[in-house]
Queue: 2 jobs
Job 1
Amino acid sequence: MSKLAYAIGAAVLFTLTMSAFPSDTARAIPPPAVDETAGTATSEVAVLAGGCFWGVQGVYQHVKGVTRAVSGYAGGEKRTAQYEHVETGTTGHAESVQVTFDPRQVSYGRLLQIYFSVVHDPTELNRQGPDVGPQYRSTIFPTTTQQADIARSYIAQLTAARVFAGAIVTTIEPGKEFFPAEAYHQDFLTRNPAYPYIVINDLPKVKALERFFPELYRSEPVLVRTTS
């Protein structure tokens, strides 16, 4: 089911049955044992996919040290990097978010801790919540060899610790280009806080970020519109 179709149904049911929807699956998890070392770099880029990019972007826009978070597509070709194509589930793309951050303030490993803790459920295969298809898969698109190593190590660590009841299905797909999504998808959570899909599925993730990561949470999000 697409997000837009879901929103139509959710708008009808929202006021009557909101309590029936599982809105918060976040949990406290240990930080990565292997992380990048502090250096002199002031900017780094991470690309992460964990379901609908509205919520993923919305969470990272509230993380201290993040200077930009852009919704888009990764995993497929440039010619199919449009919403109407990606939604077919046949392009190889996943709805993704490109996160630009200052590694002196927040490390790549800490971004992954947020990713596995509050952004999504890494045990759901080719889906997240009401969204189904490979375009909603749990995927890390490392932009460096070090990022790939940290991601693999962290998945192994969480698996060994049995943090989740099910197996982690997150894939690691290096060497994939990121393509920004259409303008109407950018800052969607902030611009549409009363949208039923956002209220049910995504605002609880932002609240969970504040609850589990108070030292990294900032109340004012960094928006694409103000950083472009």
Job 2
Amino acid sequence: MDSQAAYVHYCANETVNGVEFQYTPDVGAVPLVADMSSNFLSKPVEVSKHSCIYAGLQKNLGPAGTCVSILSPEFANGKNEMKICPTYCSWKTCADNGSMYNTPPCFTLYVMGEYLKFTKKMGGVTHWAEQSDKKSGMIYRAIDESDGFYSAPVEKQSRSRMNVPFTIMGDDDALTKKFLEGAKKMKLYTLAGHRSVGGCRASLYNGMPFEGVEALYDYMKSFMDENRK
């Protein structure tokens, strides 16, 4: 890695292909910037190792429309801002004005506040980490124990706990369509994979109750039993 780099940026969880960092990258003295939009609040984070963490609320923290930013002091002092940086995008301006330089999205912040209270009541981020491991572990178990009927296209050490992609019998198109149609009858929706990769994908964000994951697990097992050749 170039020790003279201005910063290193990584995406903590990639939703389309279902890939997640299970560790914090070691970049030495280079500022580390992380996009945690899709797994923020799903596990503890080594905040001190980052110069900037940003995350959209819409996956695990509240309604769409607001971005959480956690900045180190040197990233919030404005010294590295380009002259063309719009005032609205200035971290220094935002910090100096207590995030109130412009009218904030009040309802979105209110909902986030209520969700954070709920999170604290449930035991903090550790609670969501345990739930995420439990939910994703159940679906990956259905895949790994299927003897090839289901396949996960991601190495085990890089598997996402938020987004679980899988294919059926080598990405058989007819079986996939049958699976998706049958899932709707079980009130299991939006299981189609991203249009760029196809297959199936189960998203298991904090808002997905464990009962829903159990229903998907049971359906995957029964569908396999009925359609295995």
